[in-house]
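Consider today's protein:

***
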Amino acid sequence: MMLETNETDRWIEQIRTGGMEERREASRELGKRGEAAVGPLIEALAGTGDDDARWYYAVSLARVGRPALAPLIAALRERRDPDFRRYAAASLAQLGPDAVDPLVEMLGVEGDEELRDFAALALNRIGEPAIEALTRAVEGGGTLGAVAGLVLWRMEEAGLKALAGVCNIEEEAAVPGPIT
């Protein structure tokens, strides 16, 4: 375990100090380390002010895949640094459909509008795979439903069609024509 931790730390340091090729290599290697790399990567992401390093840490977390999902969700809820949240949300967006349900749940969090905004951005980036869960949230109403409706609105055509369907708006009435 100690050897694995040292290797993880070495790759994290390579992202912090290396050039572009070294950072790419480190990101690939950290992604292969799986769950063992998640905690150290989240700490590295939270502990740096370097946006380039943050980007590579976020990419590495996305490469880890599903094992990064729950720890990233927890960190996004707990940590208040907007830069950390931006990159954590970007990682979650790259996880795609696996991240949809926890991100939709975040849309209903009261008292942390910034968290809702970052969850909305991630869902918007995920796109079509998020539409069904967002539609269910709209149907449920409340704050969650209202925010989910706004996310669907931002998704343009596919999201607007889903939103129109939930609101029982006929397609012809949903898109106004020119005023004559």
Notes: The mean pLDDT is 91. DSSP finds twelve helices and no strands in the chain.
